[in-house]
What we know:
Layout: E1 16-20, E2 27-28, E3 31-32, H1 36-40, H2 42-50, E4 54-58, H3 75-85, E5 90-92, H4 101-113, E6 119-122, H5 138-145, E7 148-151, H6 162-166, E8 173-175, H7 177-191, E9 197-201, H8 210-219, E10 222-225, H9 228-237, H10 251-258, E11 263-264, E12 268-272, E13 279-283, E14 297-301, H11 303-313, E15 318-322, H12 335-347, E16 353-357, H13 359-368, E17 376-378, H14 381-388, H15 394-400
Parallel strand pairs: 1-4, 1-7, 4-6, 5-6, 7-8, 9-10, 9-15, 10-11, 15-16, 16-17
Antiparallel strand pairs: 2-3, 12-13, 12-14
Amino acid sequence: MALRSLKSIRNLNGKVVFVRVDYNVPIKKKRVLDDTRIRATLPTIQFLIKKKAKIILLTHIGRPNGKIVTSLNVDPLIERLSVLIKKKVKKLDTKNWKLSKKKKLEIITEIKEMYSGQIAMMENLRFSPDEANNTGTLAKELAEIADVFVQDGFAVLHRESASVVGIPKYVSSCAGLLVLKEIKGLNRVLHHPKSPFVCILGGVKMETKIPLLKQMVVHADQILIGGGIVNTYLKATGYGIGSSIFDKGKEHIALTYGRKKKVILPVDVIVGTKDGKHYRRVRLAKKPHVICKKGEAIFDIGPETLRLYALYITQAKTLVWNGAMGYFEQKPYDIATLTIARLLAARSKGSAYGVIGGGETIQAMDLTGMTDDVDLVSTGGGAMLSYLAAEKLPGIIALEK
């Protein structure tokens, strides 16, 4: 079913429009460190400004677990958004999220006094104990204030939160421009990928990648593996991986997928100390052996593996990447991840259709300065994985209904 688009909503002048965004971004000393997710929602916000709606933004930050955590308030987000849109963003005081009749009337009065095209933001949704699992009456109370609800937080579509699945039950709802853009781009990969289709999977945890692996084994031509997924496979096979991070309890699944013909595994790895002061290359023999000495761990894929992976990437017509190849935050273990990033960006927007997602993946791409060269930079790591695994996302189901 096609989702109702924001652009199909008529007569927004003066209407109260709630927009669910995902501004769960890194903040340090009350300053936003990465505003990628904020900038991604600007087309929706600017569209609503042009249509003279009264725009109320809803977001969460971190995991305060239903309690007020001052360091996780929305003030830094308001400050950064105000700079980006060159327009002062108002804050609506919903700190404790106990929307009594009196408090709700106060908020309604504040919104009525807003001028058409003005933007306001409510406090961190997760300060409410009812947000995470859509309990209580939070969704209904918020919906009663709004004329229209716009879902523009692609990164939260896999959540069963009040602001994701609850609000659309009670008020006219639609998908924002970011959500529609991401779904369109991922549908191209899921339903109409050009061959060769190469999927690159890394990161620490294998568990989150299992549904996508199941899907990619069917649809992709090759799956290039790095990061903790490799460590889990090597551990399961009997190699000595020292103190390397691996996904305990997922060894049997690693074995199952590691033996698939389409799954391409490293032929060498970089091992060393976490601080990067001591490191060396180890070639992986077919027969299990000790890879790491005492005090060592696997921190990256090796140069021979990188050359092998580059052959697949440079021939691909469709590329999907989620998860770092190693501990790229520490030199010299950043080489493979940043090389993969540059190769994918160089192929995108022309030779191939390139999609990346996940916080670390985007961070790595940003380090290369080539993020704008990628066809689709998904704002949702978990949501992207779920969507590409052909899972039904609760947030999409809510909008369809």
